[in-house]
Amino acid sequence: MDNSFKLPKRFSASIVYILLMPAFFVGFSLLYNPFDILGFFNLGGFSHSFHLMMLASIILVCLALTRLALWLILRRREIEGWHYALWCIGEGFLISCFAALYTTLFDGELPFFQSLGICMKFIFLSLLYPYIFMAMFQMIRNRSSEIASRENASDDSLVKFRDEHQRLKLTIDKSAVLSIKSELNYLEISYLDGEKVRTYLLRNSMRSQEDNAARYGFARCHRSWFVNPKHIRMLKKEQNGVYSAVLDTQEAISIPVSRQYYKDLSEAL
Q: Which of 14, 28, 97, 219 makes an SS bond possible with 67, Cβ 3.0 to 4.6 Å?
């Protein structure tokens, strides 16, 4: 089981994160004034707006440094979810330390460690929301990417047959497909169901199956036939000069092979 927490490996993706956090901090503080942060940061004769902008600058610089370091780490290895959680806590603590140092310098009377406790409350509880939101957003992206990868992986083994209106009619493992035969405006798809040979009529043209043939390794053996080479038991030439391919089914089904396709088909076996 893959427990890695996949983050974008382009540093440009981190720039949005670096800019969002200080912007959210300022906006959240001005709108909601959590824990009377505006009243606390009336220091040294400067308004709370000035101090909030300075704190936002501290957040910006700290995140620029920590996200650069994280980007360098991600270039070499993946990290797990709990590693990322510890990294975010470390970021919050680093920001709180510089915010406490800034507060102590302006206040003059408030001890550093007392200031650190107050700043940790402001920083952690204010930035908790964007941290959680961004982590959940990344988890959703990772999950979507994982599902898409699984679907692509399944597409490599499953052949999807669509009708002339591109409606999905039949999905089958490529190893079960025996042949595809053109019948007027229909295609007769022969496939194995266990050991029994079954057929499915699909309204479409041979041209519509060219992509499937190229993707799943089906070979053209006749103007009106595609065959799965993995099910050919042998190629033979009849007394009248007609070529045919005998399939590895219980009934030893034989399908026609044109002279122009015989050489390519024999080389593919």
A: 14
What pLDDT was estimated at residue 1? 44
Degrees, nearest 5: CA angle 172-154-192: 20
| Whether pTM exceeds 0.85 | no
- Chain mean position to CA 146: 5
Beta bridge partners of 191: 177, 198
Distance separating alpha carbons of residues 40 and 36, to the nearest angstrom: 6
What's the CA gap between 97 and 187, in Å, rounded? 72
Strands 158-162 and 177-183: unpaired
At 256, the amino acid letter reads P
Radius of gyration of the chain (CA): 33
- Residue 97 DSSP one-character state: H
Q: pLDDT tens, 177-224? A: 999 999 888 999 999 988 889 999 999 998 888 888 888 889 999 999
Which amino acid is it at 264? D
